[in-house]
Structures are given as structure tokens and as C-alpha cells.
Design goal:
Blueprint lengths: L19 E2 L5 E2 L6 H25 L16 H8 L13 H8 L10 H8 L2 H14 L15 H32 L5 E2 L20 H6 L2 E2 L8 H6 L3 H7 L2 H12 L7 H16 L3 H7 L2 H15 L5 H28 L2 H10 L3 H15 L26
Keywords: Acyltransferase, Endoplasmic reticulum, Membrane, Transferase, Transmembrane, Transmembrane helix
Protein name: Leukocyte receptor cluster member 4
Pathway: Lipid metabolism; phospholipid metabolism; Phospholipid metabolism
Length: about 400
């Protein structure tokens, strides 16, 4: 929702450069362009429309509008306009054609708030930007490619991946917050709170459009549909699997909907491996992507197996201590995997991982074997405990 009166630019067509320069020393490679994801999603939405039409013909009566269903098949020009819509053309977020259409057809766009949500979302970005500049200056990535780096003691080499991942997170926090603010400024992705929209997918509950400007203005709106990063969740969630859900959230929805669910396996770990493999391919052909992404299923399997075997046997105090240790290991696992993501080449990645003795791989394998020995189950079948969702109070969560 958030209508066409916000400007004819919704149909502008232009190309997105692969990256943009932040300064002479920092080039922000922000990952793959969302265009292919948009077209895959659109094809699925058109297929859903055809299936619904066939069911109507077979049943002999017409149902009311279904949640998220397209009214008709978009034309070629409409498809191109959606694929190259200026909202999201640079860094995302991913959005469905239904979201795009709701924006164009919003009956009362003037009633959709944008300034306050934009300011509320944008306020941390300058701080994250300063932290990125500071951390990347003090701990430059290029140092890891130099021979002198490997003459440093082991604790120094282990520590270095922490600020590298910190700078990596700060960079993406700024970029994705800016991308969300661009959507919010245009009123793109705004739905009533009652629709319970989720990142990428849009509304999960039917919410009739308001019949007058007054009723539209009385509604409370949110921009969860285009929310692409939960900075708090990324930093403070306990599990590796939860960290994935808070990062690049709209694309995570796309991966779950179109890759994970159609994976040629039933196992949670194997489905995750399939999803990570295709995600790495989508990012590019650099070996570092594959080494990093394909380490995730091992970590998922290890944490799920060991948690199901041990955490439930602990006292409340023991579970709290467990969560702190789990969070620490989760962050170190992401630090470790980030090195492959930023070093990119096979030689540089393996050289760094070898210099820290492949510690995360060894710890993950050891945790998996221990969990199996103690009778731990599949991570896909265990019940997640809400107490382990994060370590900080909910009131600290970013708006």
C-alpha cells in the first residue's frame, strides 16, 4: 500500500550498478541484485493465480479475493516496471509484485505516515556509519592478506576476525537501513498493523482497505514488509539459525519460500545446505562464498543436536549460562565465516582459517559428535525455547 500519487517514478526504468563507492578506500559490495528474485517471485504469484482460477472453474463458483493473490496476470510493461522499480533498485529490499501493486493502488496515500517512521528507522545509521569507518580503519581487511599478519601470535589472529565482522555488520546495517528509509519515504510497503505483515511476504491476515481518508488516517501502519535487517536480533540472538532470520530478512523469506521448501531432501540440515549452496551461487562464483555458506549447515546441525541433548537437562540458571556460551560461540562462528565472505579467494580464506587451526569447524564437529553421543535429535524436529531467543531485554529492541 502507499499509492501512485506519490509520484510517477514508480515506473522509472534504470539499471543498478553492481556496487557504489563510499570513499577512496571503501567500496560497498552490497551483494546480488534482487531482480532475479523478483521475477522468480512473480512467476510463483502468477502460478498461484492460475491455480486459484482453475479451482474456481472446477467448483463452479467464484470466491472473494484471496490474501496476496494477484487480480490478473501483469503485462510485459508492468513486469518491467516492477523489476526496475526505483524503490529497491540499489540495495533491495526484496518485495513481491503484490506489495508493489498495493503501493500503486493505495486509495488514500496521504493518510499513510512516512516521516516519523523514517526518522525512527534512520536514527542509528549515522552511529553505525562512524563505527564502520573507525573499525575498518583500525583493522583493515587488507592486513589479513599480508605475510606479516601470519607472524602475529595465535590470539591476535583469532581476535582479528571479530572487528572484521563488526565492520562488515556496520556496513550492511547502514546500507539496508538507508534502503528501508527509501521505501518508507515513498510509503512503500506500508500496511495496517492489523494485517500482521512479515518481511518479504507481506500481510498474513486479510485487512479490508479503508473506505474514507478519515478511516485511513485512523489506522496504525507499519513497514514490516520491507524490513530487511534487525540489528538487535542479529547481534543478540542466541542461535546461528536465528541470526540468519534477522539478516537480509526479505531475501531470507524468499529463500525459505522458493528454495528451502522445494529442496530435494527432507532433512532440515540437507535442506539448509541446498539453500546455502544456491545462496552462494546467487552471490557469485568466488570460492569464499561457498566455503562460508556451506559451513552454516554444519553449525546448524551441531547447535541443534547439542542443544536438544543438553539444554533441557539444566536448571534455569544453567540454561541462562548455556545461552551466554551459545551466544558467544554463535558470534565467533559468524566472525569465522565472514572471513571467507570478505576474503573471497580460496587461497586467502583457507590460509586464514588454517592459521586459526580451523577452530570453528573443529568445535562444530566436536559439538555434533557429543550431541549425538548424548542422544540429541535433529535440529529440524526439536522445539525452540523462547527463553533462548535473545540475551538482552525486549525493551532494548530496535523499533
Amino acid at each position: 500500500m502507499g499509492g501512485s500519487s506519490r509520484g510517477p517514478g514508480a515506473h522509472l526504468v534504470h539499471l543498478r550498478p553492481p556496487h557504489f563507492a563510499f570513499s577512496d578506500h571503501h567500496t560497498w559490495d552490497l551483494g546480488p541484485h534482487p531482480g532475479p528474485a523478483l521475477l522468480v517471485s512473480l512467476a510463483s504469484e502468477v502460478q498461484d493465480l492460475h491455480l486459484a482460477q482453475r479451482k474456481e472453474m472446477a467448483s463452479g463458483f467464484s470466491k472473494g479475493p484471496s490474501l496476496g493473490l494477484l487480480p490478473d496476470v501483469p503485462s510485459l510493461m508492468e513486469t518491467l516496471s516492477y523489476s526496475y522499480c526505483y524503490v529497491g533498485i540499489m540495495t533491495g529490499p526484496f518485495f513481491r509484485y503484490r506489495t508493489y501493486l498495493d503501493w500503486l493502488e493505495q486509495p488514500f496515500p496521504g493518510a499513510v505516515p512516512s516521516l516519523r517512521p523514517l526518522l525512527r528507522r534512520a536514527w542509528p545509521a549515522p552511529l553505525f556509519g562512524l563505527l564502520f569507518l573507525l573499525s575498518s580503519h583500525l583493522f583493515p581487511l587488507e592486513a589479513v592478506r599480508e605475510d606479516a599478519f601470519y607472524a602475529r601470535p595465535l590470539p591476535a589472529r583469532l581476535f582479528y576476525m571479530i572487528p572484521v565482522f563488526f565492520a562488515f555488520r556496520m556496513r550492511f546495517y547502514v546500507a539496508w537501513i538507508a534502503a528501508e528509509c527509501g521505501c518508507i519515504a515513498a510509503g512503500f510497503g506500508a500496511y495496517p498493523v492489523a494485517a500482521k505483515a512479515r518481511a518479504g511476504g507481506g500481510p498474513t491476515l486479510q485487512c479490508p482497505p479503508p473506505s474514507s481518508p478519515e478511516k485511513a488516517a485512523s489506522l496504525e501502519y507499519d513497514y514490516e514488509t520491507i524490513r530487511n535487517i534487525d540489528c538487535y536480533g542479529t547481534d543478540f540472538c542466541v542461535r546461528v539459525r536465528d541470526g540468519m532470520r534477522y539478516w537480509n530478512m526479505t531475501v531470507q523469506w524468499w529463500l525459505a519460500q522458493y528454495i528451502y521448501k522445494s529442496a530435494p531432501a527432507r532433512s532440515y540440515v540437507l535442506r539448509s545446505a541446498w539453500t546455502m549452496l544456491l545462496s552462494a551461487y546467487w552471490h557469485g562464483l568466488h570460492p569464499g562464498y561457498y566455503l562460508s555458506f556451506l559451513t552454516i549447515p554444519l553449525c546448524l546441525s551441531a547447535e541443534g543436536c547439542l542443544e536438544s541433548a543438553l539444554r533441557g537437562r539444566l536448571s534455569p540458571g544453567g540454561q541462562k549460562a548455556w545461552d551466554w556460551v551459545h551466544w558467544f560461540l554463535k558470534m565467533r562462528a559468524y566472525d569465522y565465516m565472514c572471513m571467507g565472505f570478505v576474503l573471497l579467494s580460496l587461497g586467502d580464506t583457507l590460509r586464514y582459517w588454517a592459521s586459526v587451526y580451523f577452530c570453528v569447524h573443529i568445535v562444530a564437529v566436536a559439538a555434533l559428535l557429543l550431541g549425538l553421543a548424548l542422544g540429541g535429535g535433529s535440529p529440524g524436529r526439536r522445539k525452540t525455547s523462547p527463553q533462548a531467543a535473545s540475551l538482552a531485554p525486549e525493551k532494548l529492541r530496535e523499533e
